[in-house]
């Protein structure tokens, strides 16, 4: 519903709607689409690109570049399969064109035209709260019964002396390159830093990763070590305990000086030290919405301190993953539109690092599970070296580790081929509170990597079955009948 804004002193259109969604990334688009298809009036604000960070600067382009790098790596590593290794002739600009085409192929699904076709009113303006239920956006004033803040996040730029005086890359500018970096220095040894480091070394660049503490420090150290060993073996220099102290130089010839007194020289600098929520100049204080540098404060129902305002995805305090934003959108739709007591939880949220080998996690790591469950915890392992499909592919590095309490998995960690795919079964098991017996009873096609999950479940039951004297006596008794 729209009315003349001149009556309330605003020169422009005043829109009244059921739901206002601020941000057209994965979470905002999911919320807007779900609400519109339920017949709810929806206005969607987006000042930047439709599809947000994931489509334009994050998940999609990075995985497209990783795919290009994988093809280059395959040419060098065919000897075990009887294929003569060859050094690939790499066209970096063409690899980046593959990235661009991939984005363009997905973009129509997230486009303004598609969402307008669903009945969403899309306004390409920045929104700022002027009241608890009202947002100004360019020439528009929008009053909504409920508002969802889904503004996502941006790459964090640390206050390193000299950084502002040299050209640097983030995930928002990296994919604009068309000339391969001669020597890429990456500040940050987390998932993004290592993914891009391995991709670029496979595409022919020299790469140095500087990590202030431990690389992949948020993951299980036993499994992270498998990834780091492989990435180093491929030629990436990973320097841990290397806190950047200052940056000097200029375009094409820059240096990062670390607190240990070392200097690391390179041609390009990529910042991969984390993300910060996009909440600037939104007038959240005016709306009575509490927030800090980590995001908007929300309860389990994702409602902020303003009962009309919800926050989802990177805009809310919590895990910063695209799939979390989409999950949050579903919670908000159920809660705000259906009045259901939906609650968000991180207990069953998986995540993956798309290095080679991949690294994936859901639920508690072994360290966290031991703190929470103590002696009740059992940890079972299965190795890819014992998986027949992994052997056919010569991808035997890695393992699955499952944390079990009273017969139910409370966490799973996987490092190995297609770990991001394999973790999904364990995400389902934890979300549905399945027992290990459900995994053990699953029949997996042979030979598949998925059999490793069944093997892990078998490792849980083996001592109970084959090392149990009572069961042995019962079997002997049955044989006498």
TrEMBL record:
Cofactor note as given: Binds 1 FAD per subunit.
Disulfide pairings: 54-59
Listed GO MF terms: flavin adenine dinucleotide binding; NAD(P)H dehydrogenase (quinone) activity; oxidoreductase activity, acting on a sulfur group of donors, NAD(P) as acceptor
Residue span(s) of domain FAD/NAD(P)-binding: 18-329
Cofactor(s) named in the record: FAD
Gene3D superfamilies per record: 3.30.390.30, FAD/NAD(P)-binding domain
UniProt-annotated binding residues for FAD: 63, 127, 151-153, 314
Domain Pyridine nucleotide-disulphide oxidoreductase dimerisation span(s) in chain numbering: 349-456
UniProt keyword annotations, A-Z: Disulfide bond, FAD, Flavoprotein, NAD, NADP, Nucleotide-binding, Oxidoreductase, Redox-active center
Binding site residues for NAD(+): 188-195, 211, 274
One family name in Pfam for this protein: Pyr_redox_2
Protein family according to the UniProt entry: Belongs to the class-I pyridine nucleotide-disulfide oxidoreductase family.
Protein name: Dihydrolipoamide dehydrogenase
Originating species: Halovulum marinum
């Amino acid at each position: 519903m729209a009315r003349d804004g001149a009556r309330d002193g605003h020169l422009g259109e005043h829109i009244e709607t059921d739901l206002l969604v601020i941000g057209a990334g994965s979470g905002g688009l999911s919320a807007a689409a779900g609400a519109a298809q339920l017949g709810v009036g929806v206005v969607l604000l987006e000042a930047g690109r439709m599809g947000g960070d994931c489509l334009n600067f994050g998940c999609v382009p990075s995985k497209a570049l990783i795919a290009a790098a994988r093809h280059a790596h395959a040419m060098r590593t065919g000897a075990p399969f009887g294929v003569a290794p060859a050094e690939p002739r790499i066209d970096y600009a063409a690899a980046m064109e593959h990235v661009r085409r991939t984005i363009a192929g997905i973009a129509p699904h997230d486009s303004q035209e598609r969402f307008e076709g669903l009945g969403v009113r899309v306004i390409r303006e920045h929104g700022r709260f002027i009241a608890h239920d009202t947002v100004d956006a360019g020439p528009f004033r929008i009053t909504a019964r409920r508002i969802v803040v889904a503004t996502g996040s941006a790459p964090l730029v640390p206050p390193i002396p000299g950084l502002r005086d040299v050209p640097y890359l983030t995930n928002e500018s990296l994919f604009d390159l068309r000339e391969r970096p001669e020597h890429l220095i990456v500040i940050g040894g987390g998932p993004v830093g290592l993914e891009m480091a391995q991709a670029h070394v496979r595409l022919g660049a020299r790469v140095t990763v500087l990590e202030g503490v431990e690389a992949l420090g948020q993951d299980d150290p036993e499994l992270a070590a498998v990834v780091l060993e492989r990435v180093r073996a491929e030629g990436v220099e990973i320097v841990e305990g290397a806190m950047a102290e200052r940056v000097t130089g200029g375009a094409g010839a820059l240096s990062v000086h670390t607190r240990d007194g070392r200097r690391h020289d390179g041609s390009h600098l990529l910042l991969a030290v984390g993300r910060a929520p996009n909440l600037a100049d939104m007038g959240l204080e005016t709306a009575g919405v509490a927030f800090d540098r980590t995001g908007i404060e929300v309860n389990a129902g994702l409602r902020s301190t303003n009962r009309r305002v919800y926050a989802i995805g990177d805009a809310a305090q919590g895990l910063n993953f695209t799939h979390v934003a989409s999950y949050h959108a579903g919670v908000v739709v159920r809660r705000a539109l259906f009045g259901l007591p939906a609650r968000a939880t991180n207990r069953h949220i998986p995540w993956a690092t798309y290095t080679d080998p991949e690294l994936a996690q859901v639920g508690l790591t072994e360290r966290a599970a031991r703190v929470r469950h103590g002696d009740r915890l059992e940890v079972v392992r299965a190795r890819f070296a014992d998986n027949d499909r992994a052997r056919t592919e010569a991808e035997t590095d890695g393992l699955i580790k499952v944390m079990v309490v009273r017969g139910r998995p409370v966490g799973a960690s996987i490092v190995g081929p297609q770990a991001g795919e394999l973790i999904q079964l364990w995400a389902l098991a934890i979300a549905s509170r399945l027992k290990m017996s459900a995994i053990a009873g699953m029949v997996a096609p042979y030979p598949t990597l998925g059999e490793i999950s069944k093997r892990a479940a078998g490792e849980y039951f083996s001592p109970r079955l084959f090392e149990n004297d009572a069961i042995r006596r019962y079997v002997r008794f049955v044989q006498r009948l």
